[in-house]
Design brief:
The chain has about 260 residues and is an alpha/beta fold. The protein has helices spanning about 50-55, 75, 95-100, 115-130, 145-160, 175-190, 205-210, 225-230, 230-240, 245-260, and strands at about 10-20, 20-30, 35-40, 65-70, 70, 80-85, 165, 195-200, 210-215, 220-225. The strands form 2 sheets. It has a 6-stranded mixed sheet, with helices on both faces. Strands 2-1-4-5 form a 4-stranded antiparallel sheet. The protein is globular, with a radius of gyration of 19 Å. The model is unreliable at about 245-250 (pLDDT under 50).
Length: about 260
């Protein structure tokens, strides 16, 4: 049985975010459970990335609050590791893959402290986990898109935390990188971590994730994939834009869950 008295990794309550007085997220309430892989899905402009940034304190809230393990998020956001969209990163910045991963260790250092031998060992281990150790001294601008994404995943791993927020980690990556990401997500789940991922490929949701949050300015639905990822909820989320993708996704969902059962 689930311990209902134990604080959940992330709880969002009555969250509203507005840009220039126009709401882009409205009155969102959600709890991300422990040891869960969560897909955050919705059409373009639905507020998916904004939700991630609001939890991290990167955008101001018009109303509402966020708690992390039951504590106000402002004081404990270092407990959350973040993988941003690749497009939001300046890949021309002159730094190596190892230096990027070491940034994930900053929360473990004393004020104004420099990375120690142990931090460098952890960073190299994380690069190895994502198959990038041989590129440790390579400038990030010289890496492919998939390799760059792996480096940022390694940076998140280096934080050694229990909550991970990832903004479209599968976007534009090759098949080998996608497989590596899925393997990593499953390992994190086995360790009891909570991972929430902004995700666009509806057809892979049943295969990759335990829970799904359907978002379109408001939260349409949240819960286990097998009960939440339905044609009815998808149509509420995407409307007429879903079309054939809904039918294909629903068939795939049924096939996969029947196979598991």
């Amino acid at each position: 049985m689930t311990d209902t008295t134990k604080p959940v990794p992330i709880e969002v309550h009555d969250l509203t975010v507005a840009y220039r007085h126009r709401p882009v997220l409205w009155d969102v309430d959600v709890k991300f459970p422990e040891g869960n892989l969560i897909a955050i899905c919705g059409p373009n402009g639905a507020g998916k990335s904004t939700l991630i940034k609001a939890i991290l304190g990167l955008v101001p809230l018009a109303s509402g609050n966020v708690t992390i393990f039951g504590k106000p998020a402002n004081g404990v956001r270092k407990l959350v590791a973040y993988v941003p969209q690749r497009e939001s990163v300046d890949w021309d910045f002159p730094t190596t893959a190892l230096d990027v991963v070491l940034m994930g260790r900053y929360g473990h250092l004393p004020l104004f402290g420099r990375p120690r031998k142990r931090d460098k060992e952890i960073a190299r281990h994380c690069l190895d986990k994502v198959g990038m150790l041989e590129f440790a001294n390579r400038q990030i601008s010289q890496l492919s898109g998939g390799q760059q994404q792996r480096v940022f995943l390694a940076r998140a791993l280096a934080q050694q935390t229990r909550v991970y927020l990832m903004d479209e980690p599968f976007a534009g990556v090759d098949a080998a990188t996608e497989k590596a990401i899925v393997t990593l997500l499953r390992e994190l789940r086995e360790q009891g971590c909570t991972v929430a991922v902004v995700h666009h490929d509806l057809q892979s949701v049943p295969e990759y994730f335990d829970s799904v949050m359907l978002l379109n300015l408001r939260m349409i639905a949240f819960g286990p994939v097998e009960t939440t990822f339905t044609t009815e909820n998808l149509n509420k989320t995407y409307g007429g834009r879903l079309n054939l993708l809904t039918e294909v996704g629903e068939k795939l969902r049924k096939q996969q869950w029947n196979a598991r059962g």
